[in-house]
Amino acid sequence: MGKLSCFAAIIVGWSAMAALPLAHGETVLRVFAGGSQQRTDLARKMFDAFEKQNPGVKITLESGGATSELQRQYLSTLLGAKDSSLDVLILDIINPAQYYAAGWIEPLDRYLGAKDAKSYMSQYLPAYATADVIDNKIVALPDFADAMFLYYRKDLLDKYGVKPPATWDDLATESEKIQKGENNPNLQGLSFQGAPIEGAVCTFLLPYWSQGKDYQKGVPLDKKAAVTGLDMWLGMVDKGVAKKNIAEVKTGDTVNEFMAGNVVFAINWGFAWDLFQSDPHSKVKGNVGVATLPAMRGGQSATCIGGWQWSVSAFSKNKAEAARLVKFMSSPDVSKFMAINGSLLPVYAKVYSDPDVLKANPWYDFALPVVESAKSRPVSERYAEVSDVVRTQTSAALAGVTKPEATVDEIDNRLRRVMR
After folding, report:
1. What is the pTM of this model?
2. Cα(306)–Cα(283) distance, rounded to whole angstroms?
3. CB-based burial, 55-64: b 16+ in 10 Å, e otherwise
4. From CA 233, how far away is CA 226, in angstroms rounded?
5. Average pLDDT taken over every residue of the chain
């Protein structure tokens, strides 16, 4: 099945839902669908499919916010004022607990006919069932999954006879070998997110987790392991593997630098695959490999779980219709469409083995166990505070403004009460 040919199949597949009664007259649903990383272009196609099967509903799409934190700031301002202008919202996986605690999103159980939240959510990957169920209530449904992977230049690794690295030390050694051999001052060994954005929370946690540590409520920060992780990143900078201004690098910067052919290894989310392969400006098409992230020596690979969730505003005046749209957007057919057309990781295990999906994304044959074992950032009703502290302090350490020991002390001191 071609990339867009499953569009018609989705319309047919949802005819049963279309038969459900609608409210009298036309209902306009206003949807905040995020930014380019959430592929609002593909979401629009799915909204069109929903409209065709629900002629009494029209959907207007609002987009914006290049980063998760910018979107969170916008929605927090809007919902904090109890604004009813939005009906449906897309949320980062880190946000449902915070938004539900604030009274901003509507429990969906009664709209879904779900008598038992755990049973209903068992159809999805475990991480999303956990993130979207708060106080035994379904407060959101997953749109697409995500996790961080290691992208690499297959052509360069083949040229120098090296394999995808098992450890961060191996990555540094291989990068230095390739950089020296290429003798190109613009070629980076590794690009990752050091700017004070949400991705920097994962940057802080990746080497920490791969030492067998965790950081959640009731699990204190292992300060020695955290310092070791920051030292590892700074060592990459000192060796010239990562560039000096890594503290300014955002998610999109890593994508663009790798796509331009200026990076050997890149840490990024699953959505980047489609850009590397299909963007007309990509210079690495056909030469991109994907692997699990390296581990600290003696540890195990660990990655950061991501993904986006559809929710209904608690202030919507069209909650039943909004919930109907959320259920549609979280369906297996839509998950398949988004995977084929946008390399957006499915939230259903069975979709990973679908022949059409694998044809578009051959690396999905190993992606499922990576996503299933990915770790969650600290789950907290005060996650905005957790994120702000970790990402700003991590970026400051990578910029050389603070030492790793002082950085970790500051994170621990400021979040100790939050993480109790």
Report:
1. 0.85
2. 27
3. eebebebebe
4. 11
5. 92
pLDDT level of residue 373 (50, 70, 90 thresholds): confident
Strands (E), 55-140: 57-62, 88-92, 133-134, 137-138
Catalogue all structural domains in the chain, each as residue range(s) with its CATH number.
Answer: 6-139+306-368 (3.40.190.10), 147-304+377-415 (3.40.190.10)
Q: Burial level of 192, CB count in 10 A (0-12/13-18/19+)?
A: buried
The position carrying tokens 């660990």 is 302
Q: What is the dihedral of CA 168, 221, 76, 392, to 10 degrees?
A: -60
pLDDT at 130 exceeding the cut of 90: no
Helices 319-329 and 40-53, axial angle in degrees (round to 10): 120
Interior angle at CA 361, CA 360 and CA 362, nearest 5: 110
pLDDT at position 274, please?
87
Q: What is the Rg, in whole angstroms, of the alpha carbon atoms belonging to the chain?
A: 22
CA of 396: how far to CAs of 69, 103, 194, 304, in Å?
18, 34, 9, 21
What band does 17 get if pLDDT is binned at 50, 70 and 90? very low
pLDDT tens digits for range 210-256:
999 999 988 999 999 999 999 999 999 999 999 999 999 999 999 99
